Each structure stands twice: as C-alpha cells, then as structure tokens.
Amino acid sequence: MAFRLFPLRRSRFSAGALVRGLIATILVAGIAWGGALYAANQSIQGAKKTEDSGFDGDAPTAILIEASSGSVLFEKNADELRAPSSMMKLMTAEVVFNAIKKGDMKLTDEYRISENAWRKGGAPSGGSTMFAAINSKVSVDDLLHGAIIQSGNDACIALAEAMAGNERIFAADFMTKRARELGMTKSTFGNSNGLPDPGNKMTVRELGILARHIILDFPEFYKLFGEKEYTWNKIRQPNRNPLLNSMEGADGLKTGYTKEGGYGMVGSAVQNGTRLIVVVNGLEDPEDRATEAKKMLEWGFRNFETRTLIAADQQVGYAKVFGGESRSVKLVAKTPVKVMVHKNGSDKLIARIVYSGPVRAPIEVGQKVGVVKVWRSGNIAVETPVYAAEAIGTGSTMRRAIDGASELVIGMFRAGAEKL
User: What is the mean pLDDT of residues 136-158?
Assistant: First the structure.
C-alpha cells in the first residue's frame, strides 16, 4: 500500500475546543480487494444504517461488531436506550471480574444469601434464580456461575449486597462508575440484575462495547458464558443462550426479557479465526430473538473479511505542533488498524485523524495525540488511538511567539465566521 498525505481544512468537532480533523489524511492506493480509502474533507457525524448493507433485520435495535477491531458491520437504532433486562447482568459480572483482577475479591470468598436476595431473586420470586438457600453462604465462583449460566437474580443481588451493602448503592457507585470508565456514557442502572426498574437503560451499542471488553480483557472468566449447564442446590439448569446449541463456534453471552424491554440477546461466535458479537433487543418472541441473532452472525461471517489498512508502528500522518522546535509531529498507531470489509470489495473507506490541537510542545515519544477514525460506506467502522512517533522539544521564544500570533489570527477568523 502507498500512502500520500494531504493537508485539509480544520474541522471543529466540539464547542470551545479547536479540533483539527485530518491535518494529515491517509489515501490508500491500489488496494488489492478493490476498495479505496478516500480523504475526508468534512466531518461525518454518527453512524446510521446503510441502505446498501445487504441486511435489514427485524429487531427494533441491533448491532453486529467484529471483536478484534471493534469494526461495526451493521447497526439499526444502535443508540436507542431500552430496558436491557437480564442482559444487564453482564455489567454486574464485569464489576466482579474487575474486582477480582484488582485483588479486592477472591473466587473463594463466601457471601451470605440475605432474605432480600432470597425473596426478591430466589425461589419465592418466580423469576430466573440459582435457587440459593436463604442464609446459606455461597462462594463468588458459584455466584458467578449462577448469575451467568442460570441467570440467577438472587446471585446478582448477593454479589451487589456483598460489595456495596445494597443494590441501589451498587448500581450507582459500582455499575455506573465502571460503565463510564469503559466509555459507556448512556447506560444507567437501578439494580444489579435487570429486573424491571425505570433506572435500567442501555443501548445495543453499549452492550456490544461491554461484551467486547469482557471477551478481550477477561478471557479466563469469559469461558463461563459458554458452559451449557450448571447445578446448584441439586437443581440442574441449562444455559439460556440458544446459540450454544444451534450455531458453530457460539460461546456466549446472555439473553434477557422483560415486558418493557422485550426479548433481547448478546451473542458471540468464532468462525475461521474471526469473532463476531451481535446484540438485538425489543423483539416480541424468544424464537425470533434466537433466529435474528443467528441470522445476523451468519450474514457477517458469510459476507465480510478482515483487512489491515495500517500496520503497527507505521506512520499514519502528522499533527501540527504549537511552540515546538518542529512545526509538526509524526503519528503512528501502536496496533494494526484493521477493518472488516465486504468480500466483494464494494466498500468505500474514509479515514480521518482527529485530535485537539495544535499539540503543545514538548511532546514525548509515545504520547497519545488523537485517534484515526475509519468510515465504511458512511458508517464509522473502527477507531484507533494514534501516538507521537518522535519527541518534539520546546522551540525558541521567537517560534512560540509566531505560533501564538498565528493561533490568535485563526481564532479571530473562526469567531467571525461563527457570527455569519
């Protein structure tokens, strides 16, 4: 692949911040699979369902993601907030996984099943439960099995009470805080298990982000989602995920249903070394949920393949520097920039480097500067951080004065343009 760099006009992406979009744009020529990567001359906001995607499922909200790159292959109302039902248990599981990873909790720790957990989420509740006995002590390991495989509401409540004292505090101070740390800006939580609560709202996009994070960052725990059954209190229950028995390579993650949210599913499967994640929600029938998720995964495996646009540590562009001994700094991606594309090579790809700038000197090697975003046929497909490939020291007093005057003039022109 050959790369050419083109300076473009500045683009303002957020009020009050000067963001230079694609000061250096990547133009990939002669891509073997027949596509082309074009320079982006303006900001493209959001990601909508494409008219020529070749797929239009029946789920009111849906998204299909390639796990390794995070590339979005299909989406439909992906940012619409809905009740996530038991799919929300993924957030509770992640909080526990993270606590174990940090050393704040052990799999062997045992917690008591309170009367509240038993009545609200146990056998008397009539909902999904691991049938943990009231006042019994259950290990974190068993509670995770109960929450993930059996979708036990009692298991989730017991974990929440052990970590925070009660579910409300757990939802606010543990689940919401952790969701924000993971970049999930819209999700809200009212309890630990997804039982009906006005505070329980998630989008399929953020459920996909959460699933991808669990798969990539907690592989030792992710295997729980693929276990087909679990027995507790002498009661054997099968995993509620229908994909495990109906699709090659399926190994997770979670189903959910409430009257408010409808039937939903977060699923994942691996075929020929490629892992896809599907999220659907709002369906009216459990069979439709299973059919829709499987159909979307099969469509993705059949029609897409992974292509590397930029190799690891390859220069992808440059950013303007303020007050430095150099006017610009080279940028690289530490990991390969990969995107899923249609096998027929019909996709148009647009790449844009986005950063807040100019970047003030001094700049260290490896300093994060911004991101490179790649759009496929108008939908954002992947977003990868870019870093400084070189150190830039502070420039002379004269250099800083010239840069300061330049930015002042630019600011005056921008202010004038905004008044027009």
Answer: 98
385 forms beta bridges with 371
Q: In this structure, is the dihedral angle defined by the CA atoms of residues 96, 102, 104 and 109, taken in order, positive or negative?
A: positive
- In this structure, are residues 267 and 30 in contact, taking their beta carbons and an 8 Å threshold? no
Q: Angle at which helices 89-102 and 204-217 pack, to 10 degrees?
A: 30
- For the stretch 68-102, pLDDT in tens is 888 889 999 999 999 999 999 999 999 999 999 99
Give the pLDDT mean for 375-401: 82
Provide DSSP, 157-205.
HHHHHHHHSSHHHIIIIIIIHHHHHTT--S-B-SSSS--S-TT-BB-HH
376: closest CA among 67, 49, 60, 56? 49
User: Are residues 294 and 129 in contact, defined by beta-carbon separation less than 8 angstroms?
Assistant: no
Catalytic residue of the set 85, 86, 114, 268: 86
Are 334 and 371 spatial neighbours (Cβ–Cβ below 8 Å)? no
Q: What pLDDT, on a 0 to 100 scale, did the predictor assign at position 402? A: 67
Other Cβ atoms less than 10 A from the Cβ of 220: the count is: 9
Q: Catalytic residue at 187?
A: no
Q: How confident is the model at residue 419 (pLDDT cuts 50, 70, 90)?
A: low
Q: How far apart are CA 147 and CA 160, in angstroms?
A: 12
HSE value, Cβ hemisphere, 13 Å, CA-based, for 218: 22
pLDDT confidence bin for 344, thresholds 50/70/90: confident
Catalytic one among 76, 89, 201, 373? 89
Report pLDDT for 377.
74
Quick check: is 356 catalytic? no
pLDDT score at 349: 86
pLDDT, position 376 = 82
DSSP strand pairing (368-376 vs 229-232): unpaired
> Would you give the DSSP letter of residue 32?
T
Which of 68, 85, 128, 151 is flagged as catalytic?
151
User: Taking a C-beta distance cutoff of 8 angstroms, is the pair 42, 22 a contact?
Assistant: no
The pair of three-digit structure tokens given for residue 91, joined into one six-digit string: 């957030």
- The answer to whether residue 244 scores a pLDDT higher than 60 is yes
What is the residue-wise DSSP string for 125-147? Answer: G-SS---PPTT-EEEHHHHHHHH
Following DSSP, what letter does each residue of 290-310 receive, concatenated? HHHHHHHHHHHHHHEEEEEEE
Q: Catalytic residue at 43?
A: no
